[in-house]
Amino acid sequence: MAGHSKWANIQHRKGRQDEKRGKIWTRLIREIMVAARTGGGDITANPRLRLAIDKAKAANMPADNIKRNVDKATGNLEGVTYEEIRYEGYGIGGAAVIVDTMTDNRVRTVAEVRHAFSKHGGNLGTEGSVSFQFKHVGQFFFAPGSDEEALMEAALEAGAEDVITGEDGSIEVLSAAVDFEALKNALEAAGFKAEVAEVTMRADNSITLTGEDAEKMQKLLDALEDLDDTQDVFHNAELDTQ
Q: What's the predicted TM-score (pTM) here?
């Protein structure tokens, strides 16, 4: 992937997420509830819940809110039951798009996802139509200027699968999804705190969209991100709107 545009896209996405803090809490609450319901409320035995709670704390969610939603999910309090549904489709220029949702009404959700795709020039596909182009990985991004040699040594020693340096000096570290937490802890212990650290669906290859196509693709991504039931949107487009 083009390193310069990838770093710019990461920073752009991070900025847009920061603008939507109110919705971030809603998504985190759903993730906490599903993680607790599927894996139990003990964070020492449930890494998915532990990661969700770490994200909630980073977003300044009060501890009472976190505990209340864990209790709802594990049956200690009455609450809504959410199910996870993944949708796959195509954006501008055939870009691959994955939309992960959590919903209490799948009929409503699929209608909203389909409408967002069709309204903004995309198409909702079938299960498996684009997901084969992605890998479920732990992903860390470090800003340009990081000590490449020391970071690479620390990452590989801690079990990273790959370290990729972008054209602008930004560094991407990849791990197996199950190794994400251990690698994150090891890197931070070595003095390396990532700008972005997450378990994600990473595209094997990307396509570059420029000008009007990039703007159309961004509108599609925004529409999908803004749906109430959306948790995450993954895609393989590098957007260059300059």
A: 0.78
